[in-house]
Amino acid sequence: MPLDEQKDLEVRDFRIVGKRPLRPDGVDKVTGRARFGADMTAPGMLVGRVLRSPHAHARIRGIDTGKAEALAGVKAVITSADFGEVDDDLVDILVNCMAHEKALYDGHAVAAVAAISHAVARKALKLIEVDYELLPHVMDVDAAMQADAPVLHEDAADESVPDGMSKNVVRRHEFGHGDVETGFAAADKVLERSFKTEASHQGYIEPHACLASMGPDGQADLWVCTQGHYMVRNTCAGLLGMDASQLRVTASEIGGGFGGKTTVFIEPVALALSRKAGRPVKMTMSREEVFRASGPTSSSSIDVKIGMTSEGKITAGWAELRYQGGAFVGSPVEFGAMSAFAAYDLENVQTIGWDVVTNRPKQAAYRAPGAPMAAFAVESVVDELCKHFDLDPLQVRMKNASSEGSKASYGPTFSKIGLPTVLKAAKDHPHYSAPLGPNQGRGVAVGFWFNFGGETCVSLNVNVDGTIGLSVGTPDIGGSRASMCQMAAEELGVPYEKIRTIVADTASLGYNDVTDGSRVTFASGLATIHAARDAIQKLCGRAAQIWGIDEDAVIWEEGYAKPAGENAGSFEPLSLAEIAATAANTGGPIAGHTEVNADGAGQSFAVHLVDTEVDPETGAVKVLRYTVFQDAGKAVHPSYVEGQFQGGAVQGIGWALNEEYIYGEDGRLQNPGFLDYRVPVASDLPMIDTVIVEVPNPGHPYGVRGVGETSIVPPLAAIANSVSAAAGVRLTHLPMSPPRVLKAIKANGQG
Amino acid sequence: MVQVQIWGSLKAMTGGEGELQVEAKNIREMLDRLAEAYPRLKPQLARGVSVSVDGKIYRDAWFTPLKPDSEIVLLPRLSGG
Q1: Could you tell me the pTM of the whole model?
Q2: Do B52 and A516 touch (CB under 8 A)?
Q3: What is the ipTM of this complex?
Q4: A415 touches B: beta carbon within 8 Å
């Protein structure tokens, strides 16, 4: 099916899209009826628990599970030996789920048990004897790049890494165009600064949980909290040597993911335990396990150099980014290097990214993975240059902004993008000119994210009573069931309330990519629109049969099939419900389908504006006012869009001010809990104001752009610029916790 | 012939060339010809790439047509969180 392009992007008055109907999952969520990962039970269910390494780096000389297996109530014990050979692209995933030969970080799984109760399972874990040979560890990205750093893997680097570097450096990425030295020569001021950010966790409220049940015939079911149950099915089937058809995965409701639930941790372990025990096994991570063994984002170390004229024209931008991604290849440094200067239309730009392994848990995606740290570094230097020349920071960004026709710093030429409109909205907003008091500062920053579409499959069933059942395969992590209902209702011309959207299991619908990349409202939405149009075509066909006219003589308007004109004949319009009621007589069930690899996701830009106040005696930072401006293309359900804007800002506030993985000298995580790892709570925050900008994406029938990730890109920089202004000293190390701010103030001779 | 821009770190695999010319009518042919002409690109091509054609980014669409005057840019495979 050809997908709609610009020709289809008409200015139209939407009937339902753009409104704020009640969310279909609201009652379930507030009454507790909604079932999350840990809410599923099965007859004969066992409890699965994982034994984790207390060491940051150790060779596993042997594991003796004999005593644990002999304990009454223990039904299965597994180690890496219970998994067979797997494809190359699954090796790291398997080794992260169950250590093989070496424990690579504090919290790394080394064995697991299934037992009849939590008490028995805990006791069994204590009976497993692991013979460790301790190895030196390395936690910091810059330290891991040193020639004499402890080495995690002998051969993880690929062909991009030059000879002679530490074996912990596993990938090199470079982007850009022009000649930065020529650009720097044309500048009135060239400023170079270095920055560091610490690892932060996605901080979802619901820990990872699943229930696995495999029968003696090899058929299995998995109920799991995930952002992508097809990914879980394919990965687990590969890890356990199963046919994908033998594993049905059902996604539960999800209590937050933010990218952290785009891979597997306990799911293959639960399946392996169930296979060995012959009974269902439920596994739930504790909060401590979530922190120690599921993915935080990378910590980073970044150098930025920017040249600017006295009129505020950026002549060149250069950055070197070093991200550690935990014990495995795959930090998002390439996305950091691609996005660092994407907001700027530059003649000369170069970014270099280094992917580095350390003895930390394998990083997982976190909203716009890799981009927030890069934006922090670049936007801090732009801010400092604006101050140097006494230029308006938004005016400078408008002067240099990427727009349609700009060559992006990562290669392509931008088509229609909304950055200039977003910048103007921020400049015109009363927040930008509001007065500030003593010890207060205002910060501004720009953020960018690519967005993508991906493989998507949707079925839309017309029920005999004229209602609609819509099946999608993308877990709803941000209100997508509501927006799918809206888009289907818009196309079909039926009320929003007549449509129910469900997230189908992996056996019931074709493959869908993970809910990530800000893709669902774009891609599942596009597929829903086309499934509705497919159903409309069939509905018109049925009406044509009833009237005895040609199918192309029937049109669909506002929920009714109508003759296309006077020549088609004179017939009373038939409603969707009327056609559905006689479906059995006119050819059987009516349904619309779409299978698509949705390309054309539009890039998204945001500007964040924030006021903070710094206490010069304690270094504590209070966020006074915060406004988010972002291009949504078309906001299908504005409340959810605003929620994404606000959520990104709040997570960014936490990352900027407090959240930090703190390791001891022994390489053990010191703060694996919400008491010591402090996420922002409501009393820490002002109302996050939002301004939705709508510059339609030509790749979507309604102009939708993804909004879920861009909102976390600017906050680190905007808050750092604000705090630096309030404190009178440039802050270059996140989080800007009170001790760090106080130290900077004192070093600057103030306070 | 189409002209394909590659990202900076791949230049080490093409003898320093950043813009490559191959005979191809669609993305699949373009990737196949690149692998033949520049064998050292094969590991990256096997790991996966995205392709921008006139500003629109494709992840797996083999049969997207390419025109001689299309702006074609090879990109790392995009994902998200």
Answers
A1: 0.97
A2: no
A3: 0.97
A4: yes
